[in-house]
Amino acid sequence: MIRITSVQVGKPQTMPAGHVEPTNLATYHGPWDQGVQDNAVGDHRIEDHGVEDHRGRRDANEAPLTWTSAIVKKSVHTRLWLGKENLVGDAQADLKNHGGPDKAVLGYSLEHYNQWREELGRPMLPGSFGENFTITGMNEDSVCVGDRFRIGTAVVEVSQPRQPCWKLSRLWGIANLDELVRQTGRTGWYFRVLEEGDVGVGDELVPLTLRRNEWTVRAVSDIMNDKSAAPTRVKALLDYEYLAEGWRDTLSRRWIESGRGEG
Question: Residues 196-252: pLDDT tens digits?
Fold first, then answer.
């Protein structure tokens, strides 16, 4: 059974310099909720010593600047309304690169967390990657862009893989975490909302349409990340009708730059 094991929402907040490492980011109360006092989050200190890579080395050149993001999410146990662009209570700080109908809600595999904890030695729990839905029974190899599901009373469709940005690295103080996410293929994926409705923890993702084709989330992500991908593969993905508009725009530029498309 594919189901949601936890739901998280967050609003833009100014994050302090350095990074935050609460034991469970899903229950972290940031400035938008209760405020950060005495330069601490719960029982966990905010460090100002630069950013580590995944081997524990520090980058002494990291500037101690504040930054704004909605990546830190709060765990929610009541049912929420899922609208065309987001869950009620969720928002984005960078509307140029985040949010919109093709990125209404972010899903992430529960099963990935054991691997991250083993590899990074960090107490990463659901919500740590900024996802709205932590989902069991689904991953980047099993789901295709265009797959449709009923969740609660809503209907959603997988629209694109996630492309993690530097804020994930900054949050955890691991300088190359965004690149590690891309390399492992444990990116997560976005849903667009076809029918609005209420959703909550424990809801099953009931398959309505499974494409069962070559365009798994991992395969789509691999083509986007591989600048040397064969132009024919790029064109095939570009023509895939269920792919998010933003990704189609990027692939269209690559197709034109390859000399095979029209400018």
Answer: 999 999 999 999 999 999 999 999 999 999 988 999 999 999 999 999 999 999 999
Residue count (the chain): 263
pLDDT of residue 44: 25
**Which residues, 6+ apart, have CB-to-CB distance to 54 below 8 Å?**
119, 120, 174, 176, 177, 180
- CB count, 10 Å around CB of 179? 16
Whether this model's pTM surpasses 0.70: yes
With 0-12 / 13-18 / 19 or more C-beta atoms within 10 angstroms meaning exposed / middle / buried, residue 183 is: exposed
Hunting for tokens 């929402």 — which residue is that?
Answer: 9
Q: Are the C-beta atoms of 58 and 50 separated by less than 8 Å?
A: yes
Which residues fall within 8 angstroms of residue 254, CB to CB, at 6 or more apart?
227, 234
Rounded to 10°, the helix 245-257/231-238 angle is 150
CATH 1.20.1250.20 holds for 3-210: no
